[in-house]
Design brief:
195 residues, mainly alpha, 62% helix, globular
């Protein structure tokens, strides 16, 4: 029941953007799959599955005019959009529950980059929590494959090329290698849970 309540709250926060409901489900499946492939213990994979649904919870604090803008964001809008990581983490802060603590960590750090050029904290390498490194890859993968008000979906081969090119820049190189070695399974999830 607790898990269903969490999922329903996440989905409610995404009602403003109909594409994101399936995005959340795909992120959960991709995150659990990649967590297993990275040899996380099964109980931790289950927490990752649930916590990953809350990665963009902070978008509830972003105005529709920015969140659903059909064109490119200007510099001021981009600063506001990036604040969703901090808003999400603050919304989940100070919980005594392991699941919510993990969700807070993912919400805050899933836009950090392996090279230290991400946000909001400029974390680098293994300073970035493992679960956030997993969600970062699968969130980027799903975003590139998906159509949004501001962009078209990219071809699958182009998405893979970008992920390869961002290995050790945006993404943990070891996790990228595991992801690419199992890409057929991720493609199956993408197909099964398409918008």
């Amino acid at each position: 029941m607790q898990h269903e309540a969490i999922l329903r709250l996440c989905l409610a926060s995404e009602l403003r953007d109909k594409e994101t409901g399936m995005h959340i489900r795909r992120i959960q499946e991709y995150s659990a799959l990649l967590g297993r492939k990275c040899s996380l213990p099964e109980d931790h994979v289950e927490l990752l599955y649930l916590a990953s649904a809350m990665h963009d919870l902070g978008k509830i604090g972003i105005p529709d005019s920015i969140l659903l803008k059909p064109g490119k964001l200007d510099a001021e809008e981009w600063i506001i959009m990036k604040s969703h990581t901090v808003i999400g983490a603050q919304s989940l802060a100070n919980s005594r529950f392991r699941l919510i603590q993990l969700a807070e960590s993912i919400a805050r750090s899933h836009h950090e980059r392996w090279d230290g050029n991400g946000y909001p904290d400029g974390l680098k390498g293994v300073e970035i929590p493992m679960e956030a490194r997993i969600v970062s890859i699968v969130d980027s993968f799903d975003a590139m494959l998906s159509q949004r008000p501001y962009k078209k979906a990219m071809p699958f081969d182009e998405v893979l090329e970008i992920i390869r090119s961002e290995r050790a820049l945006a993404f943990d190189p070891a996790i990228v290698d595991i992801f690419l070695a199992n890409i057929a399974e991720f493609q199956s999830v993408a197909t099964a849970l398409s918008d």
